[in-house]
Amino acid sequence: MGTNLRELLIELDRSKPRRLRAQIEDELRDAVRSGRLPPGAALPSSRALATDLGITRGVVVDAYDQLIAEGYLLARTGAGTIVNPASRRDSLESPTSQRIDRIDVDFYGGEPDLELFPRAAWARATRAAMQTMTARDIAYGNVAGIPTLRAALADYLGRVRRVDTTPDRIVVTSGFNHAFNLVSEVLRSSGRDLFAVEDPGYDLTRYGLELLRIRHLGIAVDHDGIDVDALRRTQARVAVVTPAHQSPTGVVLTAERRHELIDWAGAVDGFVIEDDYDAEYRYDRRPIGSLQGLAPDRVIYIGTMSKTLAPGVRIGWMVVPPTLVDRLNALRRVHDGSTSGILQATFANFLYNGDLDRHLRRSRHVYRTRRDGLIAALSRWLPDAETQGIAAGLHVFVNLPVGTDEIEVVDRAVAAGVRVYPLAQYRVPNGPPLPPALVLGYGSVTPDQSDRGIRVLADVLADLQARR
Ligand SMILES: Cc1ncc(COP(=O)(O)O)c(C=O)c1O
Predict the structure, then answer these.
(1) How do residues 204-249 score in pLDDT, each as one tens digit?
(2) From 114, 176, 308, mutation site for ligand 1 pocket: most ligand atoms within 8 A of C-beta
């Protein structure tokens, strides 16, 4: 999983007066900023890098220490140095403050439009919570969540996502990543210590596993979703998937693969973790039901309000097989105790009043228009560009011409005022090569902005093509 020395491409100029340590620092800093060294990537040991560069080890150790202090790198006790997972947005967003001023269109896919947050309905739900909340709702002891919210969620998830559950199998959390970290620890301690993740896949899943020091490997994704044959050839007993709308390719896990995946989990006495992050946004038809509905004893279902409402709400949930409930709750008690009872009571009212359904109806329409705007801009300015995936979620996956350097496209587009995001961000380090692609979010991008942004992108690509 480590970055090899060739990929680092550090070249020292010994004729320069600048000290070697400063040169190494500059090179590594640039590699992190440009995304060439992706977040979570493991660096070579200081000894290996020093040998490769023909310098003393102390110089490399000092350079690593400096970059750890600056937040670019992270030292993991006994396990080497990695690129700080939290460096992602900084690296891609703010190489200099000048650039930020000049950004006209940002195709960031990680957030919904925060301006659409239903403030009035949320305020009503907060007031109702204060009136209806029981004293026990804010006591210690509701580790898995307050009863009213778990009942409301069981109803909502059964209705909207065909999740098969009762309230006692639901654990309320602060979002997907929180739930994922908790359940990963529980599964690891049950002896299932090798995880499979989608490649390409959601980067924070990998960083979570890195930080928990859980071994994991990438499994290819094709037009039908994760390659279950490839998964079977591994020793993994936990697979993390995004079946409704694969992140980032946008494909749906086919019915056949769903059954294969569940059979695999049974055969290895393992589990599938279903990340159902944006399934409520499907624009051409009703979304396919959850994977969990097919095998409630083998699938851990995780949902979140980060895409549907706003990430700052920090609310999510997992639906777990009964065998895991007690262990999860025991771990939860020492982690953060529980999710705020006041937030939960508010959200329960929001669900019961039908406010989430109303918000989804309204925002689905907005995002559909924005998606159509982006697709129209792509066919206008980049008619040969191939997009992948279904009409859903908040991002579009766009293939670039073979041989294009994604990072160069990103850098040049940013310099021209348009921020786009490379497939590289979603790749497992040292995975097999894939054709270059971009992941373009449209949650906060109007059709006019898409038109301007894609026009710039087309100019950048034409310019690069002409130079080749
Ligand atoms: C694939 C995927 N899963 C989950 C999430 C949400 O995570 P959280 O609920 O921790 O905010 C995101 C957000 O970008 C995502 O892209």
Answers:
(1) 999 999 999 999 999 999 999 999 999 999 999 999 999 999 999 9
(2) 176
Q: Give the DSSP H/E element, type plus range, for residue 122.
A: helix 119-132
Tokens (6 digits) for 463: 């310019």
Residue type, 337: G
Nearest to 388 by CA among 422, 312, 439: 439
Supply the pTM of this predicted model.
Answer: 0.81
Q: What is the pLDDT of residue 134?
A: 93
Task: State if residue 306 touches ligand 1 by the CB under 6 angstroms criterion.
Answer: yes
What is the enclosing helix (H) or strand (E) of 194?
A: strand 194-199
What is d(CA 390, CA 445) in angstroms, rounded to the nearest whole number?
A: 19
Distance (Å, rounded) from C-alpha 278 to C-alpha 259? 22
What are the beta bridge partners of residue 238? 195, 271
* Token pair of 266 as six digits: 């049974």
Cβ proximity of 159 and 360 under 8 Å: no
pLDDT at 2 exceeding the cut of 70: no
Q: Which of 253, 306, 314, 444 to mutate to test the pocket of ligand 1 (most atoms within 8 A of CB)?
A: 306
Instruction: Report how far ligand 1's centroid is from the alpha carbon of 276 (Å).
Output: 9
Contact between residue 357 and residue 123 where contact means Cβ atoms under 8 Å apart: no
Question: CB-based contacts of 259: which residues, under 8 Å, 6+ apart?
Answer: 294
**H helices of 247-304, where?**
255-267
Position of tokens 């210590």? 193
- The DSSP result for 210-257, as a single string, is HHHT-EEEEEEEETTEE-HHHHHTS---EEEE--SS-TTT-PPPPHHH
Confirm if 195 and 215 have CB atoms less than 8 A apart.
yes
Report the pLDDT value the prediction gives residue 198, as an integer from 0 to 100.
Answer: 98
The phi and psi torsions of 229 (rounded to 5 degrees) equal -60, -45
Tell me the Cα Rg of the chain. 23
Sheet holding 421-422, edge to edge: 387-388, 395-399, 437-441, 421-422
Q: Please check whether residue 211 is in contact with residue 75, taking contact to mean a CB–CB distance below 8 angstroms.
A: no
Helix (H, G, I), strand (E, B) or coil at 419: strand
SS (H, E, C) 19-44: CHHHHHHHHHHHHHHHCCCCCCCECC
CA distance 24 to 63: 7
3-state SS assignment for residue 398: strand
Whole-angstrom CA distances from 224 to 176, 204, 447 are 24, 23, 30
